[in-house]
Give the backbone structure.
Amino acid sequence: MMPRKAEKWRPSVGQVIFAALTAAATLPLVGLFFFRLYDNQLIHQTQAELIAQSRVLAAVYAREVETRLNAGIALGAEIPPEARLGREDQLTPIRPALDLAAGADLLRRRPDALPASAPASQPYVEIGSRLTPIIRETQKVTLAGFRILDPHGVVIAGRDEIGQSLAHIEEIATALKGQYRAALRIRKPDKPPPPIYSISRGVGVHVFSAMPVIVNNRVAGVIYTSRTPSNIFDHLYQERGKFILAALAVVFATIVIGLVFSRTITRPMRELVDRAARISRGDRDAFRPLAHYGTREFAQLSHSFLDMAEQLSRRSDYIATFSAHLTHELKSPLTSIKGAAELLLDSLQSKTDTLTRMEQKNFISNILGDTGRLEAMTRRLRELARAEAAPQNEQTELSQVIGGLKSRFPTRAIDATGCLDRSIGMSSEKALIVLSHLTDNAIRHNAKAVRLEAAEENGSVRMIVSNDGDPISEANREKIFDAFFTTRRDTGGTGMGLSIVQAIMTSHGGSIRLLPSDKGVAFELLFPAA
């Protein structure tokens, strides 16, 4: 016996199902890694709101400056011609462009304000005073931070840093040149936030927006706004009750799916594996149906497997019984041949003739007779092997088979009626073997006529083969299909004819049975229709 290779590790069905269910259950948790994308969307939303609010204040600021142009209010830097908006560009929107995911837009904490090199002029101080109530009322609702700067970057309105300069900050320096710019900066509170606050304000970044105020193609000031964007943790914290219910629903759904998989796949498969192990140990009770199949496909698989195992078991029993019978049948002629050959050899080696010529002739006749019996048995065994071969899309018409049967027994009266033009799912050769064996048996039991009646029935062709020969005794009716059973052993019968007929019919999906008959013998054949 060859040494068995180490079996390759393979996951069980239960492990695969468990891994799939675990992956399904953890998908919501995996989504936490993609919260940064959601945070980025929230940052875009915050920037868009700051742009809208800044633009409204910029329009109010510009109107205040325009009313003071005749009084000689000083404007800031002139916008380059290429940066000015034409009439066709008056409706061009400013779109949010900050990107937290890229990381390039995330700057350090906003630098502190510096002392102004020169104080803001009186007209701008007045404008800041007029706009302060507006930004305070707006701040109550939007929670955004507002600072209004003059053309030199000095704060003229806001909560803090009045009179100080913010011109050194990158986004404000750009706005003082007439271009809008936003920045995303790291937010570091001066005091550590409480635990709940840290959960609901968790991203730690600040959005800054610097909107230039343009009057007569010159910079009249900057609306500088800032706000901390909302984040996913804030949403989860606010909706924690729903989130807990959703998590429980996911766990419950996972358990239900696991139970369904267990009942429909895992349990039936384990039971089938157990059945296979029991069948391999020879347990006959393992051929009964499973207690539960789960799915249609698994039921078909189980039925096919158990049917195949039962057929193989029956085949194994048949081979064992057939081998025992064959050994018994071969033992008698071989013993007879051996004994006769030994006596003849002793007679030839003896100095005096111990056997008469007639005795020698009888021994040789016995040897030839037993040899003929073995030859006939060998021929029947070949026919049996061919009969049990699986059919290969075979078909033939009954009329053709009947014609061959009449040619094989030309001296006998063979009468055939019925649907003889119907094709059956069997080759002409095998169908002829079936009918020839039945006819030969009938003739050997003193039949004078054989009658065949064919009729189509439920997708099959039913044929009654009857004869007027000697009837079969009640004691032998149950044995006639057994291999090697014969009542003509002394005249050369092998007892395999009806076994061959039954093997051919069964292997082609048909059947044969002995019918009750008051006179003669009658068999019913069911051929599969082509």
Notes: Confidence is low (pLDDT under 50) at residues 193-202. Residues 296-349 form the longest helix (54 residues). The radius of gyration is 52 Å.
